[in-house]
Design goal:
Residues 91-173 form the GHMP kinase N-terminal domain. With 377 residues, the chain is an alpha+beta fold. The protein has helices spanning 2-13, 89-97, 122-137, 144-159, 166-173, 216-232, 246-252, 255-279, 283-299, 306-317, 343-356, and strands at residues 19-30, 40-56, 61-66, 69-76, 106-112, 178-183, 188-193, 201-207, 322-326, 333-339, 363-367, 374-375. It has 2 domains: 2-192, Ribosomal Protein S5, domain 2 (2-Layer Sandwich); 195-367, 2-Layer Sandwich (Alpha-Beta Plaits). Strands 1, 2, 3, 4, 5, 6, 7 and 12 form an 8-stranded mixed beta sheet that branches. It is globular. The termini are close together. Bound molecules: adenosine-5'-diphosphate and magnesium ion.
């Protein structure tokens, strides 16, 4: 892919790139819709990455191209945000967010094997690849955490997606064989070794190939319900509440708002319990927590879809340790922790069940917890 990125660059711009950088997509082990509620998340970087071949220019023009489309998009770096430039808003939004450090323009070409819209955050992968590259090319001196925040700023303010800080933090801070516990209130992070391969386990992704592209409304309304719940409960965010507050919350909130808040509050507890389970090597407990998380998203937060529920049921039926939908919901993928030797049985059973129900054929593959943003060449 590294060579593919260089070749794509040469073809688009007719000269050699300065270097190639990359950043991974991520899978969230547990902790869904908790990030924008100042809570806990526990994602890991996956072995599917977005590569960017890039060179600086003498002017302030930024050009971006990708294997995703033929068109080269162009914008001049300035205080005025780039607008109406399709997918190019992701990388150009990052350049806009970093504009104070921008000493030059640049040409960039992207190649990726992170599936788009599958809940594995191809958006953070593209943002972090270019953010990490520009930080070096411009000698901006930003920390990985700061680059993550600027990636989020781009996605919020330029793309217009009201997402939290999880995806970019995972893509920037991930390490091989580990997951990153992120406290989204303090932005403190802790790398927790997963040790899956020692136990003969893998994380299987079951991509339903139902795109969450049209989920903006659903995401927004969940965010609003959480904000409303916090405001009625008179706290700055749901992070400030614990399970002991649920009795009071049930009296004060309407049924839907209560269930949305219950998901977030119980999910925070589950994330910390999952970290403990891993540290003590209790995989059975980890599995229970993943399943409880899925049930909470399905029943209380109502962001699952029948395809995701089916994927989780099939995974458990072939002997997975635990399984849950991952990512924002309304489509995308589920994950399962499963013995390597059962992966093929899972793929076969999942495809069979999806076919029987008339769903689109799912894409099933294992992901390996991998390193965050890096320079490749
Ligand atoms: P997810 O992050 O779950 O994959 P998003 O909707 O957040 O889904 O982001 C997907 C969007 O990010 C794509 O529709 C596209 O605009 C942009 N994108 C991601 N990867 C690339 C890429 N390699 N080249 C061009 N655009 C990309
Ligand atoms: Mg995304």
């Amino acid at each position: 892919m590294l060579e593919e990125a260089k070749a794509g660059f040469r073809k688009a711009y007719g000269y050699e790139p300065t270097g190639v950088w990359s950043a991974p997509g991520r899978a969230n082990l547990i902790g869904e819709h908790t990030d924008y509620n100042n809570g806990f998340v526990f994602p890991f970087g996956i072995d599917r990455r977005t590569y960017v071949a890039i060179a600086i220019r003498q002017d302030k023009v930024a050009r971006v191209a990708s294997t995703i489309s033929e068109e080269v998009f162009q914008w001049e770096i300035s205080d005025a945000k780039p607008t109406a430039l399709d997918w190019a808003l992701y990388p150009l939004g990052v350049a806009w967010a970093m504009r104070e450090a921008a000493t030059t323009g640049f040409d960039a070409f992207f190649v990726s094997d992170v599936p788009v819209g599958a809940g594995l955050s191809s958006s953070a992968a593209i943002e972090c690849s270019v953010g990490f590259a520009l930080n070096e090319l411009w000698s901006a001196g930003l920390s990985r955490q700061q680059i993550a925040l600027l990636g989020q700023k781009a996605e919020n303010e330029v793309v217009g997606a009201p997402t939290g800080i999880m995806d970019q933090t995972a893509s920037m801070l991930a390490e091989a064989d580990a997951a990153v516990l992120i406290d989204c209130k303090t932005l403190e992070t802790e790398l927790v070794p997963l040790g899956l391969s020692n136990k003969g386990l893998v994380v299987a992704v079951m991509d339903t190939r139902v795109s969450h592209r049209h989920s903006d409304g659903g995401y927004r309304s969940r965010r609003e319900a959480c904000e409303k719940g916090a405001s009625v409960m008179n706290v700055s965010s749901l992070r400030e509440l614990s399970e002991s507050d649920l009795v009071a919350a049930e009296k004060l909130l309407n049924d839907v708002t209560f269930r949305r808040c219950r998901h977030v509050i119980t999910e925070n507890t589950r994330v910390l319990a999952a970290v403990e389970a891993l540290k003590s090597g209790n995989m059975e407990r980890l599995g229970e927590l993943l399943l409880a998380s899925h049930a909470s998203m399905r029943d209380d937060f109502e962001i699952s879809i029948p395809e995701l529920d089916t994927a989780v049921e099939v995974a458990m039926s072939v002997g997975a340790i635990g399984s849950r939908m991952t990512g924002g919901g309304f489509g995308g993928a589920a994950i399962a922790i499963i013995e390597q030797s059962k992966l093929e049985a899972l793929a076969t059973a999942c495809k069979k069940e999806f076919a029987a129900k008339g769903y689109t054929e799912p894409n099933i593959f294992a992901v390996k917890p991998s390193q965050g943003a890096r320079k490749d060449s």
